[in-house]
Amino acid sequence: MQNKLIFTTLCYIEQDGKYLMLHRNKKKDDINKNKYIGIGGHLEHGETPEECIVRETLEETGLKLENPVLRGMITFVMDEVTEHSFLYTCDAFSGSIHVCTEGELVWIEKDKVLEVPLWEGDKIFLPLLGTEERFFNLKLVYEKDVLKESKLTFNGE
User: Fold this and answer.
1) In the chain, where do the E strands start and end?
2) Tens-place pLDDT, residues 22-42
3) pTM, rounded to two decimals
4) Which end of the chain is more exposed for a tag (fewer CB within 10 A), N or C?
C-alpha cells in the first residue's frame, strides 16, 4: 500500500461549559466507530483550513461558526496514512443543530469529556483546550487503533 498524506480540520464548539461532539454511531466500516470526536473533515482543493472548518461545521451540524480560533496542529500517523489536522475551538456561532448523517451530535460537559469513548491521543489534547492558550503541535502514532507514541510541543519548544 502506498503512503497517503491528508489534511483535515477539527473543531470543538463550546457553549455553557460543554463541547459539541459527534458520537460516530451511524456509518458502517467507520474508523471512528462508537467514539466521540470533534466536528470537521477534509480540506477541499483551494480551501484554507478556516474555510474548511466553517464549511464542514455547517454541513455536519447546521451551525455557522463565527471566528474559530486555531489552537494547534495534530499529526496523526496511522499505518500508511499521515493526517495533518488543524485543531480549532469556537464559542460563537449561529443557526440550529440539525441531524447529522455521520453520527449523533451531543453536548458533553467539559469536565466529563474524558469519560466518553475517545481515541487515546484525544485524551492528551482535550485538557489543553480548557487551560492552555499557547499554540501546540502534537504527533500521535497509532498501530491499528493503539497509540504507540506521542510528542507534544508548544510553539516549537
Assistant:
1) 4-15, 18-23, 36-37, 39-42, 63-65, 69-78, 81-90, 93-95, 104-109, 136-143, 146-154
2) 998 777 776 767 789 999 999
3) 0.92
4) N
